[in-house]
Write a structure and sequence with these properties.
This protein is of the alpha+beta class and about 120 residues long. It has one domain: 60s Ribosomal Protein L30, Chain: A. It is about 25% helix and about 30% strand. The protein has a 6-stranded mixed β-sheet with strand order 1-2-3-6-4-5. Helix 1 runs parallel beside helix 2. The chain starts with a strand and ends with a strand.
Length: about 120
């Protein structure tokens, strides 16, 4: 049986969970005072940091579910996303409108990536 590795464990969640070379994690913006563009850009930066932490990168993303508070932010998301995802390495992706835990938060991303840890 493979070992499960948990990073940044709290009472309610782990920052990332790794099993059999696959990492599962969630990223949200730290500064919810920003507009949608700022929050999405920050969240993508946090994804990059987490990928580095787990020994992975954008080309190893397998699946991403993106929750937007308002689907009117989708054009901004798509603009930033298209510039961020390496050509030919797009993961399976869904984007849905959702009520998020913090009313000021505009985006939340749930990610699965291949990794070396």
């Amino acid at each position: 049986m493979s070992q499960i590795q948990r990073l940044g464990v709290t009472r309610r969640w782990s920052d990332a969970v790794i099993h059999n070379g696959t990492a599962y994690f969630v990223e949200v913006p730290g500064n919810v005072e920003q507009d949608a563009r700022g929050q999405i850009a920050e969240t993508l930066q946090l994804v990059d940091e987490r990928l580095t932490q787990i020994g992975s990168d954008r080309t190893q993303l397998l699946q991403v579910t993106i929750y937007l508070r308002d689907l009117n932010d989708a054009p901004i998301l798509n603009e930033l996303w298209d510039a961020w995802v390496p050509f030919g390495h797009a993961p399976a992706r869904a984007c849905v409108q959702a009520t998020l835990g913090n009313p000021a938060m505009r985006v939340e991303m749930v990610l699965t990536a291949a990794c070396v840890q």
